[in-house]
């Protein structure tokens, strides 16, 4: 184990919590309209247990129909996003990447698809590419909450950059403290500061939701 990885192991259950919050903007079921993000609590695992959502098996008949439609209509973003969402829900990020990348070629400023693509890159072990994709998302929408939350996760896990992760989450918490993403960021910051006060500092991250 590399030395920089050992510091992550010391955080224990706190990092288990983060795993359940590595989220995309997509949701299972009917395709969402591009540009509409799903609340974090609906796409993540349980924020109290840190459990990742159970993969949803791909409906191969539906996938075949969508692929045929995509082949017939090279400008159809909706079917490509639905295919990406379907594979993302099934924990098949390599397949999801194919369709999210195609969708972004058609609608390059769809910040939700861009962020979902970055999440897939992270799951495939390419932290640098994930961070680059998140940076692009934030160039389109500087206040995109899920992008900021996930940026912190990738900095913590993919780059072992705990100070950088804290910076991302502090910015998110300042921007939207009452949102689901803001509350997740607060928990992550408090966990980081408890586990690694020498790196992050010991000051709690703002008042909890609903009071001091």
Instruction: Supply the number of structural domains.
Output: 1
What name goes with the CATH superfamily? Tetratricopeptide repeat domain
- Distance separating the two termini: 40 Å
**What best-fitting shape do the alpha-carbon axes yield?**
elongated
H and E string: HHHHHHHHHHHH
Low-confidence stretches: 1-14, 27-51, 208-212
**How much strand?**
under 5%
User: How many strands in all?
Assistant: 0
Description:
This protein is mainly alpha-helical. It has one domain: Tetratricopeptide repeat domain (Serine Threonine Protein Phosphatase 5, Tetratricopeptide repeat). It has helices at residues 3-9, 13-19, 40-43, 60-72, 77-89, 93-106, 111-123, 127-140, 145-157, 162-175, 180-195, 197-200. It starts with a helix and ends in a 12-residue tail after the last helix.
Which helices and strands, and how do they pair?
Elements: H1 3-9, H2 13-19, H3 40-43, H4 60-72, H5 77-89, H6 93-106, H7 111-123, H8 127-140, H9 145-157, H10 162-175, H11 180-195, H12 197-200
Helix pairs in contact: 2-11, 4-5, 5-6, 6-7, 7-8, 8-9, 9-10, 10-11
Quick description:
The chain is mainly α. The chain has twelve helices and no strands.
